[in-house]
Amino acid sequence: MTPLRLLPLSLALGAAFAAPAQAQSLLELYESARTYDASYQSAKAQYDANLARAQQAKAGILPSANLSANASRTNSEVKDPPSERDFNSRSATVSAAQPLFRPANFATWEQGKKQVALAEAQLTVASQDLIIRVSQAYFDVLAAQDTLTFVRAQKTAVAEQLASAKRNFEVGTSTITDSREAQARFDLVVAQEIAADNDLRVKKLALDNLVGKANAAPKPLATPVVLPAISPDSVEQWVQQAEEASPAILQSRTNLDVARLETEKAKAGHLPTLDLTASYSQSRSPNNLTGVQTRSNNTTVGLQFNLPLFAGFATQNRIKETLSLEEKAQADLEATRRAVGQGTRSAFFGVVSGLSQVKALEASEQSSQLALDANKLGYQVGVRINIDVLNSQSQLFQTKRDLAQARYNVLLGSLRLRQANGTLKPEDLQGVNAVLVK
Length: 438
Fold this sequence. Notes:
This protein has helices spanning 3-6, 9-16, 26-36, 38-56, 103-171, 176-211, 235-245, 247-267, 314-381, 386-421, 429-433, and strands at residues 64-78, 83-101, 273-286, 293-306. By secondary structure, it is α+β, with helices and mostly antiparallel strands. It has one domain (3-36, 103-271, 312-433): Outer membrane efflux proteins (OEP). The chain starts with a helix and ends in a 5-residue tail after the last helix. The relative contact order is 0.14.
């Protein structure tokens, strides 16, 4: 008899679920993914580019300066009386301008500031998406490990039942049918073990590829498992938080602000512009009559005024276009609010349902264990047959797998709920770490 068979089932499973050496918590693997995941790094680079683009909008209200220079050589040949003369000319000009009244430029600057908020919201979406992807991969590995452990425990139990059926057949207390049923169940469990082992291998590769670590080892749930309650426990409070925190709503609201500023820019096409200008130029060239080199310096300071009179109705049609786009942005904002509200409510009720399912499966696990014990006893005294025991074993291990998966779904669902209403942050992973093996 193997040592595993000498252990109670609960102790055997507890030993199988013990945290491996150098196991990592969910927060640790998330931090690794932040520096390795290509999708997040792409989003971070796009965020930096968006910030630089937003700063470009400020150039329209700041002074501009230019330096121009010119040098030339002229050959002058006169036929009558014959003469030839070469001379050089040089000039340099420094000019500057400061916008004083340019409504379109100031609207563009305001749009640039809105683009900063938009870039931050987009990066938040990428960060929250990374949290969910790492969490999903993390729990996928744990669930695959649980499945393989339960299948192997079931394989051991079925092997014991097969050996018992063979002994009973040899002494004549059971039929060959019991042995064949046990053998068929054993072969089925072996096939399930092969599939579970391969599934675990695939899930581990997915996690390693996401976090950039070889053989990443997630910490399992601590026993006894105590899942955190949902807080706040009102779905409307979660929806209210989304109005201010959801990056999707923030992006739609920012797009509406940008559209309104675009309308202001279009209306500015009817308004005058006023710039302060200044220039200083210096030139050297010979006098055309005397040939003596001359030098001149010119300084100019003034105001440049421009009033649009007619642009072929382009400005009026541009205003109509931007007003329509403004209405579209308003409708998009309302659609986003509704979608975020619906998603938040669905995620909330999913967590509530998951917690109830966990409680039901915990009760089912206890009932299934009692049923298995009763069937084993009945088989020993002859009131139950072998298939009854095998079915009870299958039901018990299936319930254990379902319970483990339900717990992971609740933890992941809690994170998805925060993602749905936009409040998900890396710090929220601390709550998951609290229920893991230390």
